[in-house]
Design brief:
7 strands, two-stranded antiparallel sheet, mainly alpha, rod-shaped, 320 residues, three-stranded antiparallel sheet, single chain
């Protein structure tokens, strides 16, 4: 009996008993749990930040492509004729420059806030110009669409005069109209304007189109280019405004660093924090939007160095 009791006592002594946690250890454990929760939250928010950056880059590229298309179509429409100078290609230049500057700013993230601000200003100006270009090309396309080109003629000869007023064009007499080489002219429109047209205006139908191959080129190609330029300018206006809104939201999300650096610490320097289990966390102070700071804990070394306890006592066993 005595031997069995001694064995039981020995067995009881072999089982270590976990002592109560010290206040400092409890505080460290709570801080570690809070740090883990904060790190998971920061990880989620950083992924959201990266997705916003990706969307901003994609939208800047789309805006650039639309601006280049608007520029190409408007430039072609501008040079179809020598006297009717419409075709709004200039908004495409401004919107393209604004999208490029904004794209550089978005790619640079923290260091590109000035680029993003400049890009938003240029895109705003480009949006206003695209709205003006939409009105100009839309009105010009409407005037061309109203013209009856079956009553117009085309001349390939040298510069000369054409007498308008014959064949019932108008009943107040005759008048001469100057025509140039490769000109599509419409006497019925010139007669309706009483042979007195000071110049091209969006309020008056053009009666002459200089340096064209035929009147059909004006009716088909020129009109199609003007309508296409109108649509592209509307699209450029829409994507420019959308890009400004998205970049503004992205810029406000990247103004402040992720974690505020402690006093005397360079924000560009990563900080290594050890927990009681010998694990380490590397914290940086940039590259992410403003989120709650990660709480730090008093330095606890994995090997137990630097920890001073009274006497030679070993710390009680505890689990994290």
């Amino acid at each position: 009996m005595t031997k069995t009791k001694k064995k039981e006592k020995k067995g009881k002594k072999s089982i270590p008993e976990a002592g109560p946690l010290l206040p400092q250890q409890q505080e460290q454990q709570q801080q570690q749990q809070q740090t883990n929760r904060t790190l998971s939250d920061v990880n989620f928010r950083c992924k959201e930040y990266v997705s916003k950056q990706k969307r901003a880059v994609q939208l800047c590229i789309v805006t650039l492509l639309v601006a280049l298309g608007s520029f190409a179509v408007g430039l072609r429409a501008h040079f179809v004729t020598d006297n009717v100078k419409v075709g709004a290609f200039w908004p495409g230049i401004v919107v393209a420059v604004g999208s490029l500057v904004s794209l550089l700013g978005v790619c640079k993230s923290q260091k590109g806030r000035i680029w993003m601000a400049a890009g938003m200003v240029v895109l705003g100006v480009g949006a206003v110009m695209a709205m003006i270009g939409t009105v100009v090309d839309g009105v010009a396309a409407g005037l061309v669409a109203k013209t009856d080109f079956s009553m117009c003629s085309h001349v390939n000869g040298p510069t000369g005069y054409v007498t308008c007023g014959e064949a019932g064009y108008w009943t107040f007499g005759k008048c001469d109209m100057v025509v140039y080489h490769r000109t599509c002219y419409c006497c019925h429109l010139y007669a309706q304007q009483h042979c007195n047209v000071p110049g091209y205006s969006l309020s008056i139908q053009p009666h002459r189109y200089d340096n064209v191959d035929s009147c059909q080129q004006v009716e088909v190609e020129f009109q199609a280019l003007l309508w296409a330029s109108t649509v592209l300018n509307i699209l450029a206006l829409a994507v420019a405004v959308t890009t400004v809104i998205l970049i503004s939201a992205f810029k406000s999300a990247s103004i402040h660093p992720l974690v505020s650096a402690p006093p005397g610490v360079n924000p560009a320097t990563p900080v290594v924090i050890y927990n009681g289990a010998g694990q380490q966390h590397v914290l940086t102070y940039a590259h992410c939007p403003p989120y709650p700071g990660i709480p730090t804990q008093p330095p606890a070394y994995p090997n137990g160095e630097g920890q001073q306890r009274p006497g030679n006592e070993k710390p009680p066993r505890y689990s994290l």
